[in-house]
Structures are given as structure tokens and as C-alpha cells.
Amino acid sequence: MARAETVDASSGPSLGELAHLAVDVLGAIPFPALVLQVPSGRIAAASPAATCLLDPAEGAVIGHLLEEFTTDLPLTGHDLYGGARLDGVETIRVVRRTDGSDLKIRMWIRSFDREPPSSAVMAVIIAEEPVEVPDDPAADTDQPDTTAVIGVADGGLLIERISSDAEALFHQPVTDLLHTSLLGLVAAHDVDRCRSALGTSSATQNGVTLHLYIRTGTRQPETRCELLILPLQPPPGCVFVFMPISGHPVGEHDLTSLSTTLTRLRRSAEIAHLTQIAFSGRAHAVPDGFNQLTTREIEIVTRLLDGQRPPAIARALFLSQSTIRNHLGSVYAKLGVASQQQLVDLLRAA
């Protein structure tokens, strides 16, 4: 198993201890992820994939400022910490490649659950092009799935599309959730924070994340979730992803759930971005049965429409090809098609 790079503890007791705790976690993550110092943006820990993306020639990124590998202006405090009413923000950066080319990346930066804000933040990187990742035998096996509910809301925040996973999370049929307000899914005491996050996303045209509680439609206790919001292009409208949070919050010196947190953030950011591409600038017509699809099925179908083949989709999602085939079989049954080509033709026609 590859080990993540880490900054020397002499850079500061708090940051050094944090990087020491994060090194093994990031070393086992098969996608680009970083721990960044606040407010400088100095790299404190990096996964092997992040090192390969930022500095494929030398492989030395620890202790360097992130701006040394990008063509953008330095990160600001808002880039690294979205404010008291947000738990994370999206920022678009351009990486300077060793061959002289540029690579656009989306960085989803998320704070640690600590008040006041911690001395470091975690970041997941999603590149527009495939990134060469060191061989990892674990990547050939299915990674544990994470419950997610994805949907699309219009400019009035009315839900136009929502995945079938919503029935299990909100304890309501999908048909009852369609054309209702997105804010109606949020617990009353978190509606103002959610409204503020939606406003920030709309104003900046970047994604945001926040922790909140949702209404389940039952007498059960409210469920804690991470909500990711990404604006549609052109506005108005947004893509949203709800992911339940289990266990204790991640603390700066308690990183046992860091891997789960980063994996959840990466998945929600990727499926939201794919859905943003699928729905932005297009009519929102979909074939009968689309709202019966799960988030994972929507994710696979969207990648298929984007031109990816099942083997590539399996690698991107860290799933086996047989698992991808099983998901596609379920999609065929729900949409009434018999083959991959029929599926693509149906969705493109819609």
C-alpha cells in the first residue's frame, strides 16, 4: 500500500500532529486528496494520486504552497473556509503540467468539524482528465457503497427529479416528493442555513456543502446529512445531493472517520458534477421510469451517455465490471430496454 506524503512535525505541533494522523489514511485513498494548512494553503499531507497529479515529475508536494502547482491567484481565506454557515466550498483551479499544458480541476474543500475553524482543511480533487494513479490491488475490488440521494431543483427550489434512494431516506414515495420545495426536506431549525447556502452557491456559481438535519416524514429522530449543492448552467436551478452522516463528527485530532468523509465528499461531488452536465442548458424531459433509478444507476447511466465504456466506469467508481453489469441490468428493466445501445438511444432521444 502506498503511503501519503506528510509534512515534518517541526512545521507546527498542531499541524504536524494532524499530518501524522492523516498520512496512513491518505496513503490508502485511491483518488486525489489533500490536507491544507489554513490560511496559507500549504500542503500538509497528500494522497499518492494527488502527488502524481500536482507533481508527476518530482513527486514532491509536501511543504509547498498549492499555488506553486497552479496558474491561479493564491487561495484566499474564503477559498479555504466558506464561512460560519458553510462546511465546505468548491473552487476551480488550473494545474500547471510539466509538459506545458494546463489541467482544470475542481477542488472540494471541506472543514474539519471543530469550532473555532481548525488550522487545516481537507480537500478532494476532481480533474477534467483521467489521472495516472499508482497501482493499488484494492482498487480492483468493489468499494463499500455510500447511501446518496441526488436530485434537481428548479429556480423556485421545486424538486424536478430525485433518485429512488429518497424513499428510504425520507420515508416518502418519490411521487410525493416531486414538485415540492427542496427546503421542505430540511429540518425547521436548519432551513435558514440551507437557504443561505443556496444563496451563496447561486451568487458565486460554485458548489457548497453543509451539515444539517433532514425531516424523515416519520416519528423517528431527525437524520444528520451532508448536503452538497451545485448550480445548474445557465441559472437558475441546482443539483443537490444528500448523504447521511453516521458516527461522530471528524475532529482535528480524531481522524478515524477521515477516509469515510473524504470518500463521501468525492462521490457526492462527482455525481453532482455529472448531473450538472447532463441537465444544464437542456430540457429536463426524461423517459418513464427515470425516477425509479437509484443514485448509483443514474451515475452509471450519465457516464455511459458521456461516452465512457463499462470497463472505464468500473475503474472510475472502484467497482468490479460484474457490479456495473448488474446495475445496468436493473436500469434496463426499469426503463424497458434490452441493451446498452437501446438505453443510450432512449436517453439521447429524451
Give the helices and strands as they follow along the chain. Answer: EHEEHHEEEEEHHHEEEHHHHH
Instruction: Bin the strand percentage.
Output: 15-25%
Report the top-level CATH class of the largest domain.
Alpha Beta
Spatial shape? globular
CATH-defined superfamily of the largest domain = PAS domain
Mean of pLDDT: 80
Given helix and strand content, the structural type is alpha+beta
Task: Supply the key terms.
350 residues, alpha+beta, Beta-Lactamase, Arc Repressor Mutant, subunit A, 3 domains, eleven-stranded antiparallel sheet, 11 helices, globular
Please, could you describe this protein's structure?
This protein is of the alpha+beta class and 350 residues long. The chain has three domains: 5-136, Beta-Lactamase (2-Layer Sandwich); 142-282, PAS domain (Beta-Lactamase); 285-350, Winged helix-like DNA-binding domain superfamily/Winged helix DNA-binding domain (Arc Repressor Mutant, subunit A, Orthogonal Bundle), CATH 1.10.10. It is 33% helix and 20% strand. The chain has eleven helices and eleven strands. An eleven-stranded antiparallel beta sheet has the order 1-3-2-6-5-4-9-10-11-7-8, sandwiched between helices. Strand 5 and strand 6 (120-127) form a beta hairpin.
Concise structural overview:
By secondary structure, the chain is an alpha+beta fold.
